[in-house]
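Thread: Modeling a multi-component assembly for a lab meeting

Hi all, long-time lurker, first post. My supervisor asked me to bring a structural picture of a complex we are working on to next week's group meeting, and I have zero experience with this. I have the sequence lines for every component (220 residues in total). Could someone generate the structure of the whole assembly? Inputs are pasted exactly as I received them:
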Amino acid sequence: MSLNSTTTDWERQRLEMVERQLYARGIRNPRVLEAMRRIPREEFIPPQHRHLSYADEPVPIGFGQTISQPYMTALMAECLQLQGTETVLEVGAGSGYHAAVLGALAARVISVEILPELAAYARENLDRTGCGANVQVVCADGSLGWPPAAPYDAISVAAAASDVPPALLEQLKDPGLLVIPVGPSWEQELRVYSKRQGRVYIRTVTFCRFVPLRGKAGWE
Ligand code: SAH
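Re: Modeling a multi-component assembly
Sure thing. I ran the full set together rather than chain by chain. Output:
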C-alpha cells in the first residue's frame, strides 16, 4: 500500500475486508455489513498507521490505545441487534470508528472517552467523515456509565473490565443488551448481558483481547 493510494483503492480494501474478515467468519447482519462497507475506516487511523486500515488486527491510535480489529467491531455491533430506533452508550470512543458504526445502526449514540486527547480525536474524525451527526462524544469515566442520557437500549464497552461495572447494568433498559470484554489483561471473554423481565442473562461469545478499562469501576 503506497501513501498516495486513491479513494478507489481504499474502497476496494474496505469491500475486501467485509468479504474476507466479516462475511467469511459468519457476520450476517446486513445492516452491520452495509455500515462497514460504507464508513471510511482509514479516516479514523493516524497517518503513520494508515496502511493498516483494513488489516485483520487492532491498530495503534496513540496514548497506548488501539482501534479494534474490524471483525471485533462487527461482532460486537451484531450482538446488540440494533434496528435503528435505539439510544446506545459506548464506553471507550478511541478513534470514534466504532461509534460511527453504531451511529449507522441506531438512532443516537453517546460515546464516552476518558482521555481528553482521544475524545477530541474521535470528535474530529466523526465530523470530518460526516458520520457523527447522531453521535455525542463525552469526555468522562465511562465505567460509571453516563447518567444524563440513561437508560440505554444497548451498551457497548470497548475496554476490558474484571467484571461488568454495576452502573452499566443499572443504566441498561429492560429489555436491553450490553456487550463487554470481561477478564484479566492477557485474555478476556466477550460477554453479552441481556436484561429481560427484570432478569439478567449472560452469554459468552468468544475470547478476545482489549485494552484495560480505567476509572472507578475499572482497573484504576
Ligand atoms: N472503540 C474504539 C476503540 C477504543 S480502545 C475505536 O473504535 O477506536 C478503548 C478506549 O477506551 C481507549 O480510547 C481508552 O482510552 C478508553 N477507556 C478506557 N477506560 C475508559 C473509561 N473508564 N471510560 C471511558 N473510556 C475509557
